[in-house]
Design goal:
By secondary structure, the chain is α+β, with helices and mostly antiparallel strands. 38% of the residues lie in helices and 19% in strands. It has 13 helices and 20 strands. The chain has helices at residues 9-12, 36-39, 56-62, 108-115, 118-128, 138-141, 151-190, 245-250, 263-267, 315-323, 326-333, 343-347, 356-395, and strands at residues 6-8, 13-18, 32-34, 69-72, 81-83, 90-92, 96-101, 145-147, 203-204, 207-208, 212-215, 220-224, 236-243, 253-254, 259-261, 279-282, 291-294, 298-300, 304-309, 350-353. It has a five-stranded mixed beta sheet. A four-stranded antiparallel beta sheet has the order 2-7-4-5. The chain has a three-stranded mixed beta sheet with strand order 15-13-18. Helix 4 (108-115) crosses helix 7 and helix 7 packs antiparallel against helix 13 (356-395).
Length: 401
């Protein structure tokens, strides 16, 4: 191993700053307002980042520019970080910390990719302990030490990691297009009622002939998740996926999770095990209404209500129908700081269930589409794992670049 000097983020930072205390605005004027929930997914979806109102003095103080690193400093996502790649006029919220690397001391692209990695996240978690509401201040977040090789080496490492990022981003865009195609067909058939043969189908009280008004409970069995006792370490660390809301933020199809249960842990609550094709809905917290679907047996925590479809042909229709109930969930949450929609309220939300023939036709199309989406997610998981395994070896000089 080569002798590479170690420096802390504080050593190489031009500035380390807490974010701006404000609320998102309904206006579409002003800079975007980047929040913790925006940096949890693999990429920032700038189209869904809200705007905020801010004066010129604070805009200059809290602005974000390409090369900046923003890090979540509190909650379940503490230690999540993003290297800002886009030149999007924006400011960052108070639960984030911005580290602006001094380009004279280090390559921001090199540093940012390390801070985005599991290496950094594990470091932060080791410093905050097992608190129910972990919190890491700027001093802790910037105390992480990393190898700082010569500038040319930093550039080459950043370039290698960027190649992985480009492949992952290309797959992500293909996933978006596939999901959009399924979503558009769903809306065409089940929102605008322009399904095959619609000209000959009567619609009464907003329900096409052969369909019926129902509720979420009409789609199948509803299961509210639960966390096995954390006082028993043996309940965790096995190979049974344990889904939490950050896992849902990253992907519509749950291919991987950050936490796993042991067989012992899962067997303490066997009625909470969900089969493949279960639909998950976040019903507590800031991301109320986020929806995902499982591709392997799993359990979830208590922030998630799951629907186990009673028929195969309810699966992908149910997925998009539950995406559409987000306004109902938000209304039931009542605008609270920590909105919460319990199982009975969730089950009672009205939805339309179309005819079986139409649902089967949609299922056939959507099944193929989501098979492709799942494969692309699996490819991205493999690319991410390969990149993260390579990163420490590049950092430590074990791989020559």
């Amino acid at each position: 191993m080569r002798n590479i000097p170690l420096m802390s983020l504080a050593d190489i930072a031009e500035s380390v700053r807490y974010g701006y205390t404000a609320s998102a605005s309904d206006s579409e004027i002003g800079p975007k307002f980047l929040r913790i929930t925006d940096i949890v997914p693999p990429q920032i979806d700038w189209a869904n980042v809200p705007y905020c109102e801010i004066d010129e003095k604070n805009l200059a103080k809290f602005s974000i520019e390409p090369g900046d690193i923003v890090i979540a400093r509190t909650g379940a996502t503490v230690g999540y970080a993003k290297l800002i790649r886009e030149n999007e006029p924006s400011v960052f919220a108070s639960y984030l910390v911005r580290i602006r690397v001094d380009p004279e001391k280090a390559d921001p692209g090199y540093v940012g990719r390390i801070v985005e990695s599991e290496v950094y996240k594990c470091f932060v978690l080791s410093r905050v302990g097992g608190a129910a509401q972990p919190n890491a201040n700027a001093k802790v977040l910037s105390s992480f030490r990393l190898p700082i090789p010569g500038k040319a080496t930093q550039h080459r490492i950043a370039s290698i990691l960027s190649a992985y990022d480009d492949l992952i981003e290309n797959n992500r865009r293909r996933i978006q297009l596939l999901e959009q195609a399924a979503r558009l067909l769903y809306r065409e058939w089940f929102v605008y009622f322009r399904f095959p043969g619609h000209e000959h189908v009567k619609i009464k009280d907003g329900v096409p002939e052969g369909g019926k008004q129902s509720t979420v409970s009409g789609l199948g069995k509803i299961v509210t998740g639960k966390t096995p006792s954390t006082k028993i370490p043996e309940n965790f660390g096995g190979n049974i996926s344990f889904v939490k809301t950050p896992d849902m933020h990253r992907s519509r199809v749950i291919v991987e999770t950050e936490e796993f249960l042991s067989e012992r842990g899962a067997n303490t609550q066997p009625n909470k095990t969900l089969p493949i094709g279960s639909i998950l809905v976040a019903c507590i917290g800031a991301r109320l209404g986020v929806v995902s679907i499982t591709c392997k047996p799993c359990q979830t925590n208590q922030q998630i209500n799951a629907v186990i479809p009673s028929h195969d042909h309810y699966r992908y229709y149910g997925l998009f129908a539950l995406i559409d109930i987000k306004p109902h969930l938000e209304a039931m949450g009542g605008g609270a700081t920590m909105p919460n929609v319990n199982k009975s309220k969730f089950a009672s939300i009205p939805i339309l269930i179309p005819s079986q023939i139409l649902l089967q036709e949609f299922q056939e199309f959507a099944s193929y589409t989501f098979q492709q989406i799942q494969l692309l997610h699996q490819q991205n998981a493999a690319l991410t794992q390969a990149r993260d395994l390579l990163l420490p070896r590049l950092m430590n000089g074990e791989v020559t670049v």
